[in-house]
């Protein structure tokens, strides 16, 4: 036995010394390191194990999950939290198909994720090998770039190409398929094309046409009632500070959606969140930054302002679905900094005072709308009103709590109350509306931010999809707090069915069992609790926080909410209009 151990040790030492010969897997790892990737999310398979070997050599953390959907969501969450490339590695066949939902989520959310997939050897092409599927063909519609790699020498070069595409214009995922014989082959390092980090990229901080920057500055200086909406791209491009400086310099009321939530503090005089429809109805200039005119924006049809301006990283998104007055394709932070500079010193005192009266008017409407919601936020009804749950979560959040929403109605309702305290502390599925994102997002958020608290609000339907990977989070030292809004139904869909088909057919295909998910946490060694009394919500959340701090394990607070309460958008079925 000692002789075998010594032989194994000598083999490892010899391998580490022989740097002139590299395998395809080691080239993958070297290229990922140059892209700033320090973690991959994966589920093992015979087609990809040489990548693991390379990651060990390069010091890249390998987080192995129980289902590839979680791995893809975690890579997406990693990208959102770091601003760098996220990476998911899957084996061929079902390994790839299981990750499709996560990659598609990243695609619709404009998140830079590199999906590396395995494939059978080129020598077995079209022979019916194990797990053989046309992965590139399948991934092409949901990625910005999809390709196979057909020589070991090109592996690192192709990774850099795919990564470059992830950050070209609006961000998004790429897919690379690497056949097993290409991955396992060993070549002299000197034959490999290995781009140097930082030496093959152009600057992405474009302001577009300078004349358009001047025109936008003129529009805003002359405007009496402007408003701006900041979207997902603002946080993804790390433009939040430039956006804050912009609204303060020009005294513009600002609204946020997606990952832009939390970029401004609640007490900031330019931060608004309950009067978007009012502002958009009465504004003379509306500026949309980094969010498309998709269903969340009514495809732009509800905007009636005489002047509408759009800034987006992707030229194809500017003016899509509705006409605009002015469109700028460029980096949000760079464009708005240029506009601020162009408008500097040009606003007269009376115009600035008029603009502040506009903001005071909106603030009064905000206050009235908030007071109207207070009876729901303070409801003592049982089962617990979902608005009360949302209110108590907001009261519970700390300055550094990262909040994640994973569900339908319960998460939609939470947006009425939950206000993250800082930038980057709101995560949601985005435009694809995927259920099951929460576990991967939470694990990634905690791995990236070990000193921050991570909380995920699930619906009971979404929790059941990926919850077993809470054990993975614990295994890798990334415990988080899961709150389950449990109404034993897929309630967002249930309402539509009841409305359309009546009570006797409304519960078909959407009712779930009454599951005490607190026991699930205990099963994996964590803390679990059931809450049925609204007055116990805050104490239960605090107990869960304390248990995580003591044990380093996850906690689940299962909250039994009223199945007959729905979000306003669900009642109006606006998601389908």
What can you tell me about this protein's structure?
The chain is an alpha/beta fold and 577 residues long. 43% of the residues lie in helices and 15% in strands. The protein has 24 helices and 19 strands. Strands 3-2-4-5-7-6 form a 6-stranded parallel sheet, sandwiched between helices. Strands 15-14-16-17-19-18 form a 6-stranded parallel sheet, sandwiched between helices. Helix 3 links the parallel strand 2 and strand 3 (61-64). Helix 15 crosses helix 23. The chain is globular. It starts with a helix and ends in a 5-residue tail after the last helix. 52% of the residues are buried.
Give a short synopsis of this structure.
This protein is α/β, with parallel strands linked by helices. The protein has 24 helices and 19 strands.
Q: Whole-Å distance between the termini?
A: 69 Å
**What's the alpha carbon Rg, rounded to whole Å?**
25 Å
Contiguous uncertain segments of 5+ residues: 1-17
Spatial order of the strands in the main sheet? 3-2-4-5-7-6
Provide the structure class: alpha/beta
Number of strands: 19
């Amino acid at each position: 036995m000692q002789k075998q151990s010594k032989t194994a040790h000598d083999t490892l030492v010899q391998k580490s010394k022989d740097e002139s010969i590299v395998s395809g897997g080691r080239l993958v790892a070297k290229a990922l390191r140059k892209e700033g990737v320090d973690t991959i999310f994966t589920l093992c398979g015979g087609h990809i194990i040489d990548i693991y070997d390379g990651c060990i050599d390069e010091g890249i953390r390998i987080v192995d999950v129980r289902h590839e959907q979680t791995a893809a969501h975690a890579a997406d969450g990693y990208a959102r939290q770091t601003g760098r490339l996220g990476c998911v590695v899957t084996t061929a066949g079902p390994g790839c198909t299981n990750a499709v939902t996560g990659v598609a989520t990243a695609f619709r959310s404009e998140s830079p994720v590199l999906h590396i997939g395995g494939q059978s050897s080129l020598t077995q092409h079209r022979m019916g090998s194990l797990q053989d599927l046309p992965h590139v063909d399948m991934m092409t519609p949901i990625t910005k770039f999809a390709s196979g790699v057909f020589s070991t020498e090109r592996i690192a070069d192709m990774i850099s190409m795919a990564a470059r595409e992830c950050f070209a214009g609006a961000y998004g995922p790429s897919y690379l398929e690497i056949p097993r014989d290409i991955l396992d082959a060993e070549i002299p390092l000197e034959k490999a094309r290995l781009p140097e980090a930082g030496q093959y990229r152009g600057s992405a901080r474009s302001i577009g046409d300078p004349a358009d920057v001047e025109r936008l500055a003129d529009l805003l200086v002359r405007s009496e009632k402007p408003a701006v909406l900041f979207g997902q791209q603002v946080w993804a491009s790390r433009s939040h500070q430039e956006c804050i400086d912009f609204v303060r310099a020009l005294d513009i009321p600002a609204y946020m959606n997606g990952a832009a939530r939390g970029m401004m503090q609640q007490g900031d005089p330019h931060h608004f969140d309950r009067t978007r429809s009012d502002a958009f109805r009465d504004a003379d200039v509306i500026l949309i930054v980094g969010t498309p005119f998709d269903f969340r924006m009514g495809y732009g049809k509800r905007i009636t302002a005489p002047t509408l301006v759009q800034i987006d990283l992707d030229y194809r998104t500017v003016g899509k679905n509705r006409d605009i007055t002015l469109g700028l394709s460029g980096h949000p932070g760079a464009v708005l900094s240029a506009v601020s500079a162009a408008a500097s010193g040009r606003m007269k005192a009376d115009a600035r005072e008029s603009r502040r009266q506009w903001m005071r008017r909106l603030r009064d409407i905000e206050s009235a709308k908030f007071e109207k919601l207070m009876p729901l936020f303070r409801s003592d009804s049982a089962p617990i009103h979902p608005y009360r749950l949302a209110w108590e979560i907001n009261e519970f959040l700390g300055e550094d709590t990262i909040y994640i929403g994973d569900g339908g109605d319960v998460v939609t309702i939470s947006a009425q109350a939950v206000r993250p305290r800082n930038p980057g502390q709101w995560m949601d599925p985005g435009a694809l509306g995927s259920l099951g994102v929460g576990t991967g997002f939470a694990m990634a958020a905690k791995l990236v931010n070990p000193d921050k608290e991570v909380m995920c609000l699930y619906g009971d339907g979404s929790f059941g999809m990926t919850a077993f990977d809470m054990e993975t989070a614990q295994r890798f030292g990334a415990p988080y707090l899961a709150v389950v809004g449990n109404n034993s139904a897929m309630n967002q869909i249930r309402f539509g069915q009841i409305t359309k088909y009546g009570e006797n057919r409304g519960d078909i295909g959407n009712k779930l069992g009454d599951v005490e998910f607190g026991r699930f946490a205990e099963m994996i060694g964590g803390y679990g609790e059931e809450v049925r009394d609204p007055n116990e919500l805050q104490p239960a959340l605090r107990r869960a926080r304390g248990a995580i701090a003591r044990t380093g394990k996850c906690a689940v607070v299962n909250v039994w909410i009223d199945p007959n309460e729905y979000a306003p958008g669900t009642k109006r079925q606006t998601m389908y209009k």
